[in-house]
Design a protein that fits this description.
It is a single chain. By secondary structure, the chain is α/β, with parallel strands linked by helices. The protein is elongated and about 65 Å long. The strands form 3 sheets. A 6-stranded mixed sheet has the order 6-5-4-3-7-8. Strands 11-10-9-12-13 form a 5-stranded mixed sheet. A two-stranded antiparallel sheet has the order 1-2. The chain folds into 2 domains: 134 residues, Rossmann fold (3-Layer(aba) Sandwich); 124 residues, Nitrogenase molybdenum iron protein domain (Rossmann fold, 3-Layer(aba) Sandwich). The protein contains 16 helices and 13 strands.
């Protein structure tokens, strides 16, 4: 009887132990399921976020579609060799991270600003710079030999050769008026940033330039007197108008002489300059880098009329590189702002 009682108690104990184990196991399983479910539903799950970031980091910006003057163009792969056949594009394109460029220049290579201190840091970073044209004359044979991955043109300057360019390589034609190539270089720089998937490079340069402008304007806030800029060529002089030189007049807060011609500018004689008679005079020489080419002001400076100018009498005449300072690109404008600041500060 006693033994039977013992066996019964032992059996009951075993049953209770088994039930306890099942209970613990069930709770553990529920807890795990709940945890897994909660983790899967977390809005900021770190694991999935890291995977997404890794995917984004490794994602190529190409192919990319670009709206152009010749329709929507797809650039399939990152271009390693880029050709620009518009003579006004090089100043802006040099800002970007490229190793090989072919370019048309405004003048001959000897007359160009490629060897200036302003351009040197940008030219030196290139492995290859090939000249394929001067002004509106593009050497298609040289361009073909260069074998570009991408050609960037203008709808006006290059209108006669657009079809031929497209036969050589993928060609982006920029609407020069819509992008305001001649009057708003930040717009062109941003377009290049879009084409080359380097939008950050464009925005960084524009922001830094604007900061330099603000600093320079503050330093020149107390400048007294009027300021005029002349484009000096071999046989003529052009007064540069306020509409064209907004980066100096509006950007730096410079005062203009009181004359109707100051708005749009005009060809100027020595007599016209005496009527203008600015307090400060910038001579933007286009022979600045090659003085074997004469300048018309060489003769002006020998006469008595020149010597009676206020700017001459007060030693306020400043020679600058006209190709850079009076151009329309970011590198040239950066040079110009610094040159103006150093002269007037």
């Amino acid at each position: 009887m006693l033994n039977m009682f013992k066996r019964t108690n032992q059996f009951a104990a075993l049953v209770m132990l088994f039930c306890f184990i099942l209970l613990i196991s069930g709770c553990s399983s529920d807890a795990k399921n709940n945890t897994d479910q909660n983790n899967n539903n977390m809005p900021g799950d770190s694991t999935s976020g890291k995977v997404s970031e890794m995917e984004d980091a490794g994602k190529s910006p190409y192919p990319r579609k670009i709206d152009t003057a010749n329709g929507e163009i797809t650039i399939e792969e990152e271009p390693e060799k880029v050709a620009i056949v518009h003579w006004g594009y090089l100043d802006s394109l040099l800002l970007f991270d490229l190793k090989s460029i072919a370019a048309a220049l405004p003048f001959t290579e000897k007359q160009s600003v490629l060897s200036t201190e302003s351009y040197k840091p940008y030219v030196d970073k290139l492995d290859e710079l090939v000249i394929v044209g001067e002004n509106e004359q593009v050497n298609l044979e040289a361009l073909l030999d260069y074998d570009p991955d991408l050609i960037i043109a203008g709808n006006s300057i290059n209108k006669d050769i657009t079809t031929k360019l497209s036969q050589i390589s993928t060609t982006i034609v920029i609407d020069e008026e819509e992008t305001n190539v001649w009057g708003d270089w930040p717009s062109l720089v941003r377009k290049f940033g879009e084409i080359l998937a380097q939008e950050d490079v464009a925005e960084n340069y524009i922001s830094e330039f604007n900061l330099r402008m603000e600093t320079a304007k503050e330093k020149l806030a107390n400048l007294e007197g009027t300021v005029a800029f002349l484009q000096v060529r071999e046989n003529m002089v052009w007064l540069q108008g306020v509409d064209y030189l907004k980066q100096y007049y509006e950007g730096l807060g410079l005062k203009t002489p009181d004359a109707d011609t100051m708005k749009e500018g005009a060809q100027l004689s020595l007599e016209g300059l005496t009527e203008l008679n600015p307090d400060h005079l910038f001579l933007g020489y286009f022979n600045y880098g090659d003085q074997s080419i004469p300048a018309i002001t060489d003769e002006w400076e020998k006469g008595e009329v020149w010597k009676r100018l206020k700017s001459v009498q007060n030693d306020h005449v400043y020679p600058i590189n006209g190709e850079l300072a009076l151009g329309f690109g970011p590198i040239g404008h950066s040079y110009g702002v610094q040159a103006v600041l150093e002269a007037l500060e």
